[in-house]
Predict the 3D structure of the following.
Amino acid sequence: MRKVIATLWLAAALLLCGLPALAQDGRELVETLMSIQRAMNEVRADIADVETQMADAPNRARREAIGQELTELRTKLARQRQNFETIASGLNLQAATDKTEENLDWQAELKELISPLLKELKQITDRPREIDRLRTEIAAHQSRLQGADKAMARIGEVRASAVDPELQTALDNLELKWREHKEQLLSDIAVTRYQLEQKLSEEQSFAASARNIFESFFKSRGKNLLVAVGAFFLVFFALRFLHGVIHRRTPMQRMEQESFLLRLFDVLFYMGIVLAASTASLVVLYLSGDWVLLGLTFILLVAIVWSAKEGLRRFWEQGKLILNIGGVRVGERIIWNGLPWRVETLHYYSTLVNPAFSGGRIRVQLNDLIEQVSRPLGNEEDWFPSREGDWVMLADGSYGQVQRQTPEHVRLQLIGGSHKTFQIADYLGQTPRNLSQSFTVGTTFGVDYKHQAIATHEIPETFRAAVEEGIRHAGLGDMLDSVSADFKAAGASSLDIGVWTTMKEGAGHKFYAIERLMQRICTETCTARGWEIPFTQITVHQAE
């Protein structure tokens, strides 16, 4: 209730404040109408006098002259009557009742639009153009002066050979005419040179001229430009703030961040922001009456729209991506530069994330994603063969711990403390074997053929039990998963037994240690059981 009463009081105060102004405007309107009425009465009286004179005219010529004067007076009276009706009613009755459509002349409209800009450019280049005009004019006068000298010389030659007095008199008059023309040319050259010297004496350095142009611009149009730019950014950021408020304090905050309706609202709202900000700057220039900057701004906007027309298909594809209905969608997996990424956001600068990398968050221009295609994520799908801290073995024999892993390179710390860095493509080309989750170490041990009877069952089982006990005794029992052994092959000089040890997570740094331990245990087992370990034999056959 209090707000309503306050509003009524405010409206009443504004109304009372406006009454004196309205009264003053009314008095001025009445005075203007009375002045027009008096002028109309005077013209009517003049018409009556002229009509009387026409009736008393003695001849036709006089009547035609008076008729022309009468027509002018009647035209003047009609114009005054139209002004009276327009001011009294506030409408132009003739324009309101005129239904004739005028043809739109685009060339004339465009010329009228850019004429202030052309005048401004003409004013800026006025001085150099004036200097060039004066120099051209001096050259033209000098050329005419040479022609005058030749003409006078020609006349002198003809007069010297003439004997007729009448002809000589005519030639003297012609020579006098050319002499006067020559004197006029000399006078014009002197005046033009003086004007040129005056212009050249006003010449300033480039820096001074630029400073004067800059100062002149900011005294007149610079202020309007700053206000227009300020209006653009004020409206832009104010509507951006409003957009954030709408997201935080309306039911939209409960919508899914990547829902189609929310994205459609964002796109339309941002288009409205740009349109409103541009309109604000144009309104400022319009109200300030700065048609030069207004014309430039209008031409700039037309150029932007025209260039946007050429890339309409690309804009359409970008719009589909922003609305999350294109080939790439938020939350899905995409291959970018040979690496898998999860699409986190889709905006003008989209965000791709790979949790396996240090610094695994990159910004990509939306335009670069138009030709890409994403797919839904798989269950527990890996993002890279390794993570920082993992132990890996590469195809070239490199074995170490991943110390640093970024989208550009992978750095390994090898056994002994040295480092080795790979470009990401080279690293993947080495088909890294990750030993940090679980892995199997295999070794082959040969026994002599004299133990052939027990090589397929007893020896493999003995090796298995011995290796398992030896690994537990070495303090690796918590990381041991299983040990298996079996007859592998009958070699050239031995019966080969394969032993395989599978380790759990956390034993990646013991890969070679476990391999050596398995060889040692098998050797000790053969020694304890009296099983002979053969060596490679070479048989030499001597030719007969």
Residues 1-23, 96-101 have pLDDT under 50 and may be disordered. Residues 127-202 form one domain. The chain has six domains: 2-94, 127-202, 213-296, 311-380, 391-434, 439-529.
